[in-house]
Predict the structure.
Amino acid sequence: MLNRRRFVQQLLIDRGDLLVIPGLGSATYDVAAAGDHPLNFYLWGAMGGTAMIGLGLALARPDRRVVAIPGDGDMLMGLGSLATIGVKQPKNLAIVVLDNAHYGETGMQPSHTAAGADFVAMALACRFREARAVTRIEEAAGVRKLLHAGEGPILVNAKIKPEDVPHVLPLRDGHAIKQRFIAAMNSA
Amino acid sequence: MHSPTNIETSWPDRIYAHFRRVGIRQVGYVPDAGHSRLIALCRDDPQIADVVLTTEEEGVGLVAGAALGGQRAALLMQSSGVGNCINMFTLLRNCGFGCVVLVTMRGEFGEFNPWQVPMGAITQDVLRLSGFLTYRIETADAVDEIVGAGCEMAFSGVQVAILLSQRLIGPKQWTK
């Protein structure tokens, strides 16, 4: 299983103009830990909505690559959005689920994926073009390639260790995060 | 049945004309009989990405993503769907995403199904408490003005909800 910080850091190497939407909680901290970037739209709430924000952005900007990075709890809350994304078939959207099979923010209670719920099977059933699980850090480079050049919709289920890592807390002001993101996107 | 050119039933066309006028490019919806003509108009328009949702709260994320990408989006839902969105609506307030939501009302004038009444009765208050400016349309002749003004305000960064009363839409037909 993956170390979440190492995996996310490797995912975002040479990210170029990739648009990144991390879900609330540890996903936002992991993306911040990989290096603050104006093209990160950090979420501090809206649990269940991360993938759909990715869809709206991917439809609005077909010329750019978009990756949504929810945790497993966030993805579970928005499972219907896999069906919605499957209908629209956005070629430029990937979802990378950081799946530690636990609700880390609330006391590490086991999540549904601990009991076997399988995002890869769900994504394929919703007509995603590509869906795979990764468990080894050596696979990160392949996933990075997929984010930049694979044909979406793509789902990667990153099996990460359920470990506590130090919180890295980025900007919290939603208006500021949005304005910074839009300004950077329009200048890149 | 009504003729589509009848003033009472052509209000979806006027809403659609405002969507075109203000440049709405994404429309999220959970299918709804009251919105069926407007949904069909949006689906037929290559300039509009129509996004059929499994639940209305998905639409709130869609609107936010569209706005990040520089596109205007609208949501169509039934009053029951408003209740599904409450926590997700905070995304709009937290980040200042403008949004226009068109809500077809159930559970009021002429409603056959009493199970629609509790949500219909609180829909406008829920929207107001969630930070929306709310406008209610009772008659077809008010659609043009209110939807026009609502769309303008929404895309100055305000959350606007327009409630289309059951009296305007007509009660759901329960014939077998």
Remarks:
- Residues 132 and 159 of chain B are 5 Å apart (CA to CA).
- Chain B has one domain: 11-169.
- Chain B has a mean pLDDT of 92.
- The beta strands of chain B are 24-29, 49-52, 72-78, 99-104, 133-137, 159-164.
